[in-house]
Design brief:
The protein has 3 domains: 18-63 and 248-348 and 466-523, FAD/NAD(P)-binding domain (3-Layer(bba) Sandwich); 122-232, no CATH class; 350-460, Polyamine Oxidase, Chain A, domain 2. The model is unreliable at 318-331 (pLDDT under 50). Strand 2 (30-34), helix 1 (38-49) and strand 3 (53-58) form a beta-alpha-beta unit. It is globular. Helix 2 packs across helix 14 (499-517) and helix 6 (186-193) crosses helix 8. The protein has 541 residues and is α+β, with helices and mostly antiparallel strands. The chain contains 14 helices and 22 strands.
């Protein structure tokens, strides 16, 4: 028997095989995928490749969901096609994102449109900067080297670290470790860890905020799992790749053409307004106000708010219901009520803000392409886009300016009432804009003298919040409704994965769940190791 070859450099990566079945479905099955983000694209790809008819409905004009890009609005008198684009912020394509990278290989087999970022520096307000370049990639050597090299983690501070808590970072075992932190926030875990303030901010709290939430609202289990996946449990390293052009040009438009080549129907710029199950067990999906699609199954790849609005009307008896969990009556209502309770409990994270600036001069040549920040007011990162995006590089060459993007992960008017206003998502956008600009001028002082030729500011709040509630209370791909599955980065998965990779994995799992019911084999999934280095036995995968 040939041993499967891991998809990356980590020989301890784990393969999770799909259930056995035929290579393709034997009947004429039609699935409606609601949502064209990474999760919906993952599900649509696996289904189409196995002979399922797929209609993908996406409310935006572009694919990619929270990783999409689109043409900018134009100021008066600007040329119609100067190539400027906007996005929802910077995204890092880590090398342990095995499922996401496999999805992208469908349209880009060698991943030539992903280029490496040479460093991932994190800077604190007092100027101390941590770098992840040239670190060993194999744990625990990477962690030891980071502690030795880090200016934010002096050797004298080791005595104050709570050793049992620190050992938890390298003594995990999944899925058991997920439940260990039920009820504990990332902030509480960081408090008991007792890392020095600089290391706490740069090595851990910055990562927690990348989930678009304050550490007090973010689950400690998710933080520990992320630290394992990116640093202490994987040999892929903490550096990452980025697309060589805007997300639509480099990634999603090519993948969309691939899906259309397989017969997939892409309905962009259209919104699903309701869904219901008919008496025969099939699904009726309403698009807009007037059209109703008939499907054998539905993949709902939407954020918690949109999921709630679509599934709340489903509450009640289900035709063909067979699975009954914890329900003494035996009619399935107990499971349905519990599932709807969990759906209703889903929360969206606070708003995030992206400000993209087209400047009349350039930032200094030595500036990093990407810089994570901490203690710079609302600012969480700065990106100099012409360093890697072809469209931004062309604009920079033609106009002699830089394209700079600022990102604030969690702009929460409930936590900071001064941020409240009558702008999008209840945010005072003028105040947020001025504070982000002030922080940019502090981080990169030369930008204070540069004029803004054009800008785009985006405020959104459609990211799911991974809170401190019980891990087992989180929704999974499965639902109590036959033919309805969920996908998205807010779902519960047994393995230590997060963000874009969780979106891709849940999309594949959703497709696999439907395929096994039709006797077809889905797609294998690879993850980082499921155990920390303290638990890992030689030769085990």
């Amino acid at each position: 028997m040939v041993r499967p070859v891991p998809p990356g450099r980590d020989r301890h990566a784990v393969r999770h095989p799909a259930d056995p079945g035929t290579a393709r479905v034997t009947g004429d099955q039609h699935v409606v995928v609601v949502g064209g983000g990474i999760a919906g694209l993952g599900a649509a790809t696996v289904l189409l490749e196995r002979g399922v008819r797929v209609t993908l409905v996406e409310a935006c004009e572009q694919l990619g969901g929270r990783v999409r890009a689109w043409p900018t609005s134009r100021p008066l008198g600007a040329p119609a096609a100067d190539g400027r684009t906007m996005s929802r912020g910077f995204h890092a394509f880590f090398r342990q994102y095995y499922t996401l990278r496999s999805l992208l290989r469908r349209a880009d087999p060698t991943l030539r449109h992903l280029v490496p970022v040479p460093d991932y520096p994190l800077r604190r307000g007092d100027g101390l900067t941590d770098s992840f370049a040239a670190l060993p990639v194999t744990p625990p050597a990477n962690l030891a080297a980071f502690v030795v090299r880090s200016p934010t983690f002096p050797v004298s501070a080791l005595a104050s670290v709570h050793v049992p808590s620190a050992l938890e970072l390298i003594n995990v075992s999944y899925p058991e470790s997920h439940e260990r932190y039920d009820g504990e926030s990332a902030e509480a875990f960081l408090d008991r860890l007792r890392f020095p303030d600089g290391a706490r901010h740069l090595a851990l709290e910055v990562f927690a905020r990348s989930f678009f939430a304050h550490p007090s609202d973010f689950g400690a289990g998710e933080l520990v799992g992320m630290f394992h996946a990116y640093f202490t449990g994987s040999s892929e390293g903490l550096l990452f790749d980025v697309p060589d052009d805007d997300y639509d040009t480099a990634l999603w438009a090519p993948l969309g053409r691939y899906l259309q080549g397989l017969g997939g129907q892409l309905r962009l710029g259209e919104r699903v307004t309701s869904l219901r199950q008919d008496e025969a067990g099939g699904w009726r999906v309403r698009v807009g106000q007037d059209e109703e699609l008939t499907a054998d199954a539905v993949v709902l790849a939407t954020d918690p708010r949109a999921t709630r609005s679509l599934v709340e009307p489903l509450a009640g008896p289900v035709p063909g219901q067979s699975a009954v969990l914890d329900d003494a009556s035996g009619d399935g209502t107990g499971e349905l009520q519990d599932w709807h309770r969990r759906v209703a409990a889903g929360r969206n994270a606070p708003p995030f803000v992206v400000l993209r600036l087209w400047l009349d001069g350039t930032v200094q040549p030595g500036r990093e392409a990407f810089l994570g920040t901490s203690d710079y007011d609302l600012l969480d990162n700065v990106t100099v886009l012409e360093r890697f995006e072809a469209g931004a590089a062309r604009w920079s060459a033609e106009h002699g300016g830089s394209v700079v993007e600022l990102h604030a992960y969690a702009v929460d008017p409930e936590r900071e009432p001064a941020l409240a206003g009558d702008g999008p998502r209840g945010v005072d956008v003028e105040l947020v804009r001025s504070r982000l600009l002030a922080s940019l001028h502090e981080v990169y002082p030369e930008t204070a003298a540069l004029g803004v030729l054009h800008e785009e500011l985006l405020v959104e709040d459609d990211c799911g919040l991974v809170g401190t509630g019980p891990w087992r209370d989180r929704l999974t791909v499965r639902t109590p409704y036959p033919g309805l599955v969920l996908a998205g980065d807010g779902l519960r998965v047994d393995w230590p994965i997060a963000l874009m990779e969780r979106a891709a994995v849940t999309g594949v799992l959703a497709a696999n769940q439907l395929l096994v019911g039709w006797g077809a084999r889905g797609e294998d999934i690879w993850t980082v190791p499921l155990e920390g280095v303290l638990r890992r036995r030689p030769g085990r995968r």
